[in-house]
Amino acid sequence: xxxTTTRPGAGVAAAGEDxxxxxxxxxxxxxxxxxxxxxxxxxxxxLFLIPTGASFxxxxxxxxxxxxxxxxxxxxxxxxxxxxxxxxxxxxxxxAFVTSGAKVVLGLLLxxxxxxxxxxxxxxxxxVFFPVLVxxxxxxxxxxxxxxxxxxxxxxVLGWFGITGPGWLTDPAWALMSVALVDIWKGIGLATxxxxxxxxxxxxxxxxxxxxxxxxxxxxxWHIILPxxxxxxxxxIILSLIGGLRSFDLIWAMTRGGxxxxxxxxxxxxxxxxxxxxxxxxxxxxVVLFIVVAALIVPLSAWLNRGEKDA
Amino acid sequence: MRNNTWRFGGGxxxxxxxxxxxxxxxxxxxxxxxxxxxxATALQFTWPTEFALFDNIVQVLQAxxxxxxxxxxxxxxxxxxxxxxxxxxxxxVGFVLQRRRSRWNPLVSGLVLAGLIIPPAVVxxxxxxxxxxxxxxxxxxxxxxxxxxxxxxVLLFRAFMATIPRELDEAAIIDGCGPIRLFxxxxxPLLRSVIITVIVVQAVSVFNDFTYALxxxxxxxxxxxxxxxxxxxxxxxxxxxxxxxxxxxxxxPPLIMYIFFNRQIVAGMTSGxxxx
Lengths: 311, 276
Fold this sequence. Notes:
The complex is a heterodimer of chains A (311) and B (276).
Chain A lengths: L7 H10 L19 H22 L2 E3 L4 E3 L3 H6 L3 H33 L5 H13 L2 H11 L6 H8 L14 H26 L3 H9 L4 H12 L1 H17 L2 H6 L11 H10 L3 H26 L7
Antiparallel strand pairs in A: 1-2
Helix pairs in contact in A: 4-8, 4-11, 4-13, 5-8, 8-11, 11-14, 13-14
Chain B lengths: L1 H32 L3 H5 L11 H47 L5 H13 L4 H10 L6 H24 L4 H9 L4 H12 L1 H17 L2 H6 L8 H11 L4 H36 L1
Helix pairs in contact in B: 1-12, 3-6, 3-9, 3-12, 4-6, 6-9, 6-12, 7-8, 9-12, 11-12
């Protein structure tokens, strides 16, 4: 390993000169120059790091199209006082926990089903996975129609069985859960796929040994599969929690946070405040979301990965 | 005996359930897209009496002065550009990050993880784009996608880089390759399989993105297909056949990707996920 330090600037200049063939480099330079970080770093720093850092300042200002004024923590106080915003804050957690919980449970079950010896496994795997790739807006538009309280296919079918379906997206009590349900429909394929990858990696010897010991399938599941797919479970929980906490497009396409603000989440509040011209308040929402995500994900992933060597 | 009951019984039950839950919505999209306007208004799950799919597609493409066609063009430029930049730049980062042990490594790895977790700050990013005079432009949106997507790509490239033997680098260096030639002519071609994975996964995610388009390139002029569909659905409450023809059209590119690159998509989404 070469330990010579390369000054990034010098590296650029030198590389610009002799890209021609066959010129041998002086032995001093590392073949892995640090300036390779620079082009990517430029995009990352300018469009991600600086805005993220700046958000901590802007969150403390009253910022409109015309002027900007430092007001301290007023935006945050407002964020936790206005009913509509508090509701969005709480909904974010409900939405994230419901969707990721369901994805873990259903993904695990589907994973077991789709690794067992049943017919048409390939077909089933593709069908379950495909919605992951479909545009969220397309899914939102389609389910908005299917979940229509009167003409929607779902309530018509429920009607055949004598059930009067709720106004999925129009009833305040149901709206958030309905969107969560569609989120699960769309995202379950990825969870299933991660579980399948985890289950396929379990060595067959374990099952053979368990068979000798007379274990039934329930015991196989509980004592072999469940402990050994833990890395997959960790991945599914972390991924779907991050996705759930940040989720915006499906909610926006289906309900726009309505009716009222019963299906608002932090991400949709951010957009609404931005649209209304309250840039400072919107950015405060961003900071809140950042803190929520970091405060949940960092300790959780440390706890879930405990005792596991990072390979 | 028991095994066979499960094999067929369970399988058939699963197939029936999968059709109800996953196939019916897609058939509904197709059927509605193929109906004429009156029939589509009923939103029934029925076979169209008059098969107007082709007419509807032509009509939706022509609507509002070929807006959808422009949007498709925008989306294609955006996707190709963003993915190309991401692939090259993140492969460079992954290469040096995996090969060279320097005191910058922990910082770079930390930033990569931060990029995966932290939700982008909306208004400050807009403020930055305005400063650069890139707000509401396709290049601006493209660069934003690059900035937000790099982390995921770097992880994939770094992991794959470990499988390429260092002896190759050494041989190339002895033959007189500088870093640029070493990377672009020796290493980069060997990354083929992971490059394909990164391309398809990121292409699908950039193409399907709605949130960033809504924030950073609003308006009709530079609309992407997702934004255009959203605007169409917000304005058009009567022409369900055209709306669903639109949905159908923007579902086709990912479907084609899935048919041809099934394996790479699955590999990318699960392997990237394992480290995420």
